[in-house]
């Protein structure tokens, strides 16, 4: 058979029940048609977080194993297929280091940031590696992504080679902003609230066969009140938030329809392998909203997510984005490939699968090979497996459990057993054959299973992900589940009246204290501790380091130097990252490589915070908002003292001396 084209579509923060073909009332006819003529997965997993899912999607590896956002231990699908003669292109959100054109994509349009204003964009937009200015009028990110994707497809049509197109929609990630016509379409549909929507979606999922007829959906958690108990102002704002979300998801479907229509017109639809997936479940983080009294139909209105609607959107599951429970890691997955799929069109497959499986599947069906080495990288083995046997109507065997880790949330899926920990809490155990919605923690009834799976989680963390192990210190009482009684500080506080510029948990938007401005965060694979003015660092795996997420807001414009003394017995290269815009998050911004000495002796360093490719660049004259310092890229330890930022005259403007408590990621 002729090698297939590949269209890979990823959406951002989509809940398990947010598509019509997964139980939603949102109108998604184009995606529903792909499902009706293709294959749906009911147990398809992600990493529960934006950037880590993108790493797994592109590399077939768990995020940390791949080198995290640097991809320093991986090869991408674009690089692999490009080496086999495929035309490769991408449109949309990147959210990793460097740019897509540095990792095998021949064409790219989109934003490098993790999120942006849908109407106004941000300063990270690129076209083929060059800065791209967002138009002042007539711009909407979801539409612009497909405008450029269509351009790339037209270019691909002119060549004889097959193509690989990756479209990474930012929607429906916050800020909640919708086109006026899409928002108007859903006004009035959510007046009945999340209890009714949750009930209707759960019932529809059973009708569709997405869930079993005897499945009991998750109950509304204690941190979310009954809809009827809300105040009128709260109901009004919450109704508008879900209206915006529905409109944004509807727009994703409309734009996907444009891509499908093109494939039908060119005759490519039958031999194009189409994937539609999400990076994580619905987002519960209720951060700052502006203009809540208005409609979110232009760039001046910006709303954050709602924990209440996140629960309804993740129907029938518990918890949310970042949590390694089903609500965070299980999302829709649709495959459409008429020439390559043997199961009955419209079939639903209940085999557990994961984003790490997409890359090896693409390699398999395109007749390619996964590279074992790549210039400038120490490539690690792929953890995913090919799903081609499912495409051919069979089944497959996975040799290892599915491993889940993001920050302090952890999990392991082994056959019907699911082990999970909520924010460093004790291990919880669920039998997903009888309890897919994780309502009954049976850890106390199966201590041997918990011990065995916990040991396996740690073994994989060390040997596969190359990160640290986990030993929960808290005890769990019989039948208790930490994930049901705890909450997150950024979930909505519904006792608060919705207000402009106030976080949804009732806290002020920011605290500009000297302590917070001098706080140091230990990054992943790093443990930190201050002792008498010296910062002791212990590195447990790849990509360790520290970050300063909040610098004083009234710093004069640069240039600056980051000065410090380092004693290290680790290994590898160092890096400094800094951002010059408030809407940028680390590691976006400017990257500066540097070479530390690892001889266990004290050495002084001073790193100029300018773009090293252009000493006169504007970055040297702009404010600096965030800093990150990596002193190695491997396991080991180090000490830092006299860490400070100096202005152009050598005057000290910030000193980090341990007076504020470092927080581990």
From TrEMBL:
Database matches in CDD domains: PAS_like
Keywords, comma-separated and alphabetical: Calcium, Hydrolase, Metal-binding
Residue numbers spanned by region Disordered: 468-517
UniProt xrefs under InterPro entries: Alkaline_phosphatase_core_sf, Sulfatase, Sulfatase_CS, Sulfatase_N
PROSITE patterns: SULFATASE_2 (PS00149)
Domain Sulfatase N-terminal residues, every copy: 4-367
A Pfam family recorded for this sequence: Sulfatase
Alphabetized SUPFAM superfamilies for the sequence: Alkaline phosphatase-like
Transmembrane annotation, as ranges: none
Family: Belongs to the sulfatase family.
Protein name per its UniProtKB record: Arylsulfatase
Native source species: Rhodopirellula halodulae
């Amino acid at each position: 058979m002729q090698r297939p084209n590949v269209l890979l579509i990823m959406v951002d923060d989509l809940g398990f029940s947010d598509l019509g073909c997964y139980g939603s009332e949102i109108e998604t006819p184009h995606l529903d048609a792909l499902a009706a003529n293709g294959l749906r997965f009911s147990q398809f997993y992600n990493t529960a977080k934006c950037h880590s899912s993108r790493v797994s999607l592109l590399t077939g590896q768990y995020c940390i194993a791949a080198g995290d956002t640097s991809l320093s231990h991986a090869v991408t699908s674009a690089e692999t297929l490009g080496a086999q003669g495929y035309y490769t292109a991408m449109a949309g959100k990147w959210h990793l280091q460097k740019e897509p054109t540095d990792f095998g994509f021949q064409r790219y349009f989109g934003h490098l940031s993790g999120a942006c204003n849908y109407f106004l964009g941000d300063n990270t937009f690129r076209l083929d590696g060059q800065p791209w200015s967002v138009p002042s009028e007539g711009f909407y990110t979801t539409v612009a992504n497909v405008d450029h994707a269509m351009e790339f497809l037209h270019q691909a049509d002119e060549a004889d080679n097959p193509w690989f197109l990756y479209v990474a929609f930012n929607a429906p990630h916050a800020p909640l902003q919708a086109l006026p016509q899409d928002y108007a379409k859903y006004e009035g549909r959510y007046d009945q609230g999340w209890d009714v929507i949750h009930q209707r979606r759960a019932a529809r999922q059973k009708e569709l066969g997405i869930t079993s007829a005897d499945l009991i959906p998750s109950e509304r958690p204690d941190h979310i009140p009954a809809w009827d108990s809300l105040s009128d102002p709260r109901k009004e704002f919450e109704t508008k938030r879900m209206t915006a979300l529905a409109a944004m998801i509807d727009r994703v479907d409309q734009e996907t329809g444009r891509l499908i229509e093109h494939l039908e017109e060119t005759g490519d639809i039958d031999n194009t392998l189409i994937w539609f997936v999400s990076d994580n479940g619905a987002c519960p983080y209720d951060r700052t909203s502006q203009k809540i009294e208005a409609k979110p139909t232009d760039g001046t209105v910006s709303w954050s997510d709602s924990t209440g609607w996140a629960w309804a959107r993740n129907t029938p599951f518990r918890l949310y984005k970042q949590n390694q429970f089903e609500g965070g890691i299980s999302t829709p997955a649709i495959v459409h490939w008429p020439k390559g799929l043997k199961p009955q069109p419209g079939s639903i497959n209940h085999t557990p699968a994961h984003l790490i499986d997409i890359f090896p599947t693409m390699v398999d069906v395109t007749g390619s090979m996964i590279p074992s080495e790549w210039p400038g990288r120490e490539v690690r083995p792929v953890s995913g497996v090919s799903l081609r046997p499912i495409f051919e109507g069979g089944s497959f065997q996975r040799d290892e459990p599915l491993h889940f880790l993001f920050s302090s949330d952890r999990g392991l899926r082994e056959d019907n057993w699911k082990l999970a920990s909520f924010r460093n809490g004790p291990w919880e155990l669920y039998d997903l054959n009888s309890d897919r919605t994780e309502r009954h923690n049976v850890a106390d009834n199966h201590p041997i299973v918990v011990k065995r799976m916990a040991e396996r989680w740690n073994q994989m963390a060390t040997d596969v992900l190359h990160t640290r192990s986990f030993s929960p210190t808290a005890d769990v009482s019989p039948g208790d589940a930490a994930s049901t009684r705890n909450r997150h500080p950024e979930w909505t506080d519904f006792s608060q009246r919705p207000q402009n510029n106030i976080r949804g948990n009732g806290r002020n938007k920011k605290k500009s204290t000297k302590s917070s401005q001098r706080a140091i965060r230990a990054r992943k694979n790093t443990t930190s501790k201050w002792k008498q003015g010296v910062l002791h660092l212990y590195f447990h795996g790849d990509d360790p380091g520290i970050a300063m997420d909040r610098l004083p807001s009234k710093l004069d414009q640069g240039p600056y130097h980051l000065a410090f003394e380092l004693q290290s017995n680790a290994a590898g290269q160092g890096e400094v990252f800094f951002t010059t815009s408030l809407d940028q998050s680390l590691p976006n911004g400017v990257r500066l490589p540097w070479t530390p000495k690892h001889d266990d002796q004290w050495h002084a360093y001073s790193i100029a915070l300018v773009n090293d490719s252009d000493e006169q660049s504007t970055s040297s004259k702009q404010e600096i908002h965030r800093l990150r310092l990596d002193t190695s890229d491997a396991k080991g330890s180090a000490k830092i003292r006299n860490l400070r930022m100096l202005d152009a005259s050598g005057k000290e403007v910030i000193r980090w001396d341990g007076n504020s408590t470092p927080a581990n990621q």
